[in-house]
Amino acid sequence: MTERLILGQTLTFGGDPFTEGPEAARHERHGAVLVRDGLIAAVGDGAELRARHPAAQVTEHGDALILPGFVDAHAHYPQTAIIASWGKRLIDWLNSYTFPEEARFSDPAYAAEVAGRYLDLLLTNGTTTVASYCTIHPESVDAFFEAAQARGMRALAGKTCMDRDTAPAFLRDTAQSAYDDSRALLARWHGVDRLSCIITPRFSPTSTPEQLEALGALWAEHPDCLMQTHLSEQTDEIAWVKSLYPAARDYLDTYEAHGLLGPNGLYGHAIHLEPREIDRLAETGAAVVHCPTSNTFIGSGLFDMGLRARMRVGLATDTGGGSSFSMLRTMAAAYEVAQLRGTALHPSELLWLATGGSAEALRLGHRIGRLAEGYEADMVVLDLASTPAIAQASARAGNIWEAVFPTIMMGDDRAVLQTYVAGRPARG
Ligand code: GUN
Ligand code: ZN
Fold first, then answer.
1. Which atom of ligand 1 lies at the shortest distance from residue 79's CA?
2. What is the pTM of this model?
3. What's the CA-to-centroid distance between 76 and ligand 2, angstroms?
């Protein structure tokens, strides 16, 4: 049995820094992670682990920082090619850029090409797990899972369902086909290797009540499954939802009334929430996902991180509405958005959101998101001096937080020295 010993600074969390403070972190200046059969067998002092495991294959990362791999809790892999499209707000952006591009995923060869390119971009940026929307085409889900499987990644995805005439005719399913296709994909992929299916109504404006009802029924048959959708991203969108669902108490009620609110629900954006919506999300144990680069890029608004006191919160790129594949850039945007709301998020809080916090939002906090014995050995190794600008700032650091913060704020894929997927190096 081959053991691999990966040496460097290690940083992980024993608890939640939002409630316990930075002391929740476990930092080893000269640390190591021992990997066996794709899992973490031990984390500790480098010299000690080296002495105890003399036969292990050693990889030395020196001063670089070993973290759990980043977890992106909400993204749209089919929007890879339209990232950074100019000048539109949500509804126009969907119609002008997103829907025409998503139509191309009826072609399995195109879907396979983009899925592979997308997951390689994630690995280049240190992201080892993603929860992605696909398109209405079941082939787009197959392509994504096949690409993730080939890379050994833990990945979650679902067929995006839209049957309402608010979506273009070339990109519509039906209530019945959405149910049937999502069910068949669940049977094919859910729990295979490191893959999970998510039931995925895009958002209530592009679904009929009948489709929401059908997907609610499917979720009731598979309550262990996650369900992901969008919630209260832009004020125009909320007004649109009110006009399409006049009987609903609020946006969340369009989901709640159709069996689409529950403890395994994952609600992207969740910016402009009513008090009742916050109460119901909290009472039901649902999670929300903060997508800060998207919320500024599409002009949606400033997420309230105070929600963390009441519910699980994940962090996500939301590409291609988000403007970066990098969770470093996403943490920086989360910092900036919180500053605009009067709060400075600590580096420990940002790193937690991008690792264990997002893992918990995805109900995977027992498998990924931490460097701890028994966890899956997904890791990112960061150079904390990857550019001259970052190097000169981090050189002044008096502690690990000051050393890592310039990389959080200014780092990109040049900072990612290596990404490990189930203990295996994913980069050259
Ligand atoms: N709301 C419904 N669909 C989408 C999407 O693809 N991106 C974003 N940002 N919001 C959405
Ligand atoms: Zn989204």
1. 6
2. 0.99
3. 6
pLDDT tens digits for range 252-297 = 999 999 999 999 999 999 999 999 999 999 999 999 999 999 999 9
Phi, psi of 247 (to 5 degrees): -85, -10
Q: In degrees, to the nearest 5, what angle opens at C-alpha 5 toward C-alphas 56 and 12?
A: 155
pLDDT in tens, 153-176: 999 999 999 999 999 999 999 999
- SS3 assignment, position 271: coil
- Distance of CA 94 from the midpoint of ligand 1 (Å): 7
Domains annotated on the chain, with CATH: 3-68+369-425 (2.30.40.10), 70-361 (3.20.20.140)
Protein residues near ligand 2, an ion, with CB under 5 A: 268, 318
pLDDT above 80 for 77: yes
Q: Which ligand is nearest to the CA of 231?
A: 1
Atom index in ligand 1 nearest the CA of residue 206 equals 2
Cβ atoms of 318 and 362 closer than 8 Å: no
Among protein residues, the one with the nearest Cα to ligand 1's atom 11 is 230
Q: Hunting for tokens 């682990």 — which residue is that?
A: 49
